[in-house]
Amino acid sequence: MKTLLALMLVGISFVSQAAERNDIPSCYSFAKMDEHRPADSGRELVVIIDQTVKVPLGLKKSVWNQVLRYTQPGDHVILYQFSALLQDNYMKREFDGKLEMPFTDQKVRNSLGMDSLKSLDGCLQQQQQFFAQTIGKRMAASFAGQGDNIAKSEILDSLKRIGDDLKDDPAPGKTLLLVSDMLENSDFGSFYSNNQIRLLAADKEMARVTKQHLLADFGGARVYVAGAGLIDSEAKNNYRSGKIMQQLEIFWRDYFSASQATVVSFGAPELTVDIK
After folding, report:
1. Which fold has domain 38-101+128-266?
2. Would the N or C end of the chain have less CB density within 10 A of its end CB?
3. CA-to-CA distance for 40 and 26, rounded, in angstroms?
4. How far apart are CA 116 and CA 119, in angstroms?
5. Separation of alpha carbons 86 and 107, rounded Å
6. Residue 86 — φ and ψ, nearest 5°?
7. What is the pLDDT, as a whole number, of residue 42?
């Protein structure tokens, strides 16, 4: 099994179909038991990180722990990074992997060799370790670095593109974990005025977003937001009033509702509930 873990850590994937991306090596392929692979759980977790926001270390760890607590065998996990469209900063699907379910058909298990079953069971345990390490590294690399200063934030356009991208990944249970300050600042419009966060009128903002064809389609997903209104400690005029945050939340709840999704929790900035 040490050999398999070493292969996992250098990123060598074993996939049942060459055309289907899977950043998590398959244990059923490793154990030569592809024909016995159980069906997936039907759950899909989509983590979306806004690279234009400087996220404190504590919040980064909190988001990572949310991902680890949520994910179960059989889940499909996708990680997107988005930014303003610059030379080295743009929307990327940084991770796309499927965890595998344990093989529990006792009748069939009894008919298989002990060595193959031992190899499979041990591999599935290490698959969880590999996922935890890999998703942690990919998430850490997706956040803004200390020296990054990206003035624009294409949140609305990025979400629309991600929604379009996810249409090829239909899942009965889709959950979005969005890590962003949720403060749009682009040519489509800005939530700032005179270098301060402005008080939004949710109905007017929704009319503008609809007119510019910026609504997405998230296929009934449940949405959790972490980082809303996040304050850069180095920025001037970094106060966020309760009224401003209230209107910001109303707008985004309306936006996601119109984009075929439901906001379950709006963390401003910390999520106070576990994603489910």
Report:
1. Rossmann fold (3.40.50)
2. C
3. 13
4. 5
5. 56
6. -120, 175
7. 93
pLDDT of residue 1: 45
pLDDT band at 84 (very low <50, low <70, confident <90, very high): low
Angle at 200 (CA atoms; ends 232, 237), nearest 5 degrees: 30
Q: What are the pLDDT digits (tens) for 140-164?
A: 999 987 656 666 788 999 999 999 9
Helices (H) and strands (E) in the chain, counts: 8, 10
Q: Are 14 and 26 in contact (CB under 8 A)?
A: yes
Q: What is the DSSP letter of 74?
A: T
Task: Report the distance separating Cα 169 and Cα 149, nearest Å.
Answer: 33
Strand partners, 203: none
Rounded alpha-carbon distances, angstroms, from residue 108 to 103, 112, 181, 272 = 9, 7, 50, 43
Q: Where are the domains of the chain?
A: 38-101+128-266
The whole-angstrom separation of Cα 23 and Cα 40 is: 16
Exposed, middle or buried by CB within 10 Å (0-12, 13-18, 19+), for 208? middle
Residues 271 and 182: their CA atoms lie apart, in Å, by 14
With tokens 């873990």, the residue in question is 5
Segment 20-31, tens digit of pLDDT = 889 999 999 998
Mean pLDDT, range 130-143, rounded to an integer: 96
Please compute the mean of the pLDDT values over residues 251-270 and round it to a whole number: 97
Angle, alpha carbons 115-119-120 (nearest 5°):
120
Instruction: Classify burial at 161, counting beta carbons within 10 Å of its beta carbon; exposed 0-12, middle 13-18, buried 19 or more.
Output: middle
pTM: 0.90
Average pLDDT over residues 24-45: 92
